[in-house]
Amino acid sequence: MGDDRSGALGDRAGESMGGSLGEGVHLRTMTPADVPAVMQLERTLFPQDAWPEEFFRQELAQAEPQASAERATRRYWVAESRNPGADDVLGYAGMMCVLPLADVQTLAVAPAAQGRGLGTDLLRLIIKESQARGAEDLLLEVRADNPGAQRLYRREGFEQIHLRRRYYPDGGDALIMRRRLRPEHPRRPSSAADLRSDLTDRGDAHE
After folding, report:
1. Domain at 134, CATH number
2. Contact indicator for 37, 28 with CB cutoff of 8 Å
């Protein structure tokens, strides 16, 4: 899983996405040409533990179109402004999917765009893509001292499943959270009658 990028999400749930992320915001696939602009925002939002530029490039090398659809285990997006004179990149998100699991790799929203539901929309986009790829669970890490991000994740169906002590460089703890993407179907306890019936069926098949 990727490091916690949820400190830059804002703390209000947004509306469901349609073809765009709301008025004045355009969503598209991240490309290597976006990395310089993404890095500027990355360093602003995460001055202590920003991802290296090379890491973004390595991630994109495992996403379409750099990787074939059959081999692509990553997907990254950028949300950009349609308004003239505004900052181009308002947010970005990335995920990894190696079945049966998917992971939120990164999720960030520019300070000027926070509080408008963009973080929620990007998270829902990752959820939708994970479901489309057939993942059973979606995992993420979030700082234990970031209650705002935790509330957002819980609103979107995530639950805490583990605590990693002193996970972050500054000694902070990480919560591991999960959202189930497929309903669980509990197996009905077998009975002696079921077992006898199964053995009988097997015996008939060999006669």
Report:
1. 3.40.630.30
2. no
**Once rounded to an integer, what is the mean pLDDT over residues 113-129?**
94
In 9-122 the beta strands, taken as DSSP E runs, fall at 25-29, 74-81, 89-98, 101-109
8 A C-beta contact, residue 38 and residue 80: no
Is 172 part of any domain?
yes
Domain count, the chain: 1
Whether 191 is in a domain gets the answer no
> Would residue 73 count as lying in a domain?
yes
Q: Which of 80, 153, 156, 184 is catalytic?
A: 153
User: Average of pLDDT values for 122-133?
Assistant: 97
Asked if 24 contacts 79 with a C-beta cutoff of 8 angstroms, the reply is no
In this predicted structure, what is the pLDDT of residue 109?
Answer: 94
Residue 187 pLDDT greater than 60, yes or no: no
Structural domain for 79, as ranges: 6-185
pTM for the model stands at 0.79
Q: Is 76 a catalytic residue?
A: no
pLDDT value at residue 42:
95
* Known catalytic membership, residue 153: yes
Catalytic residue, from 80, 141, 159, 184: name it. 141
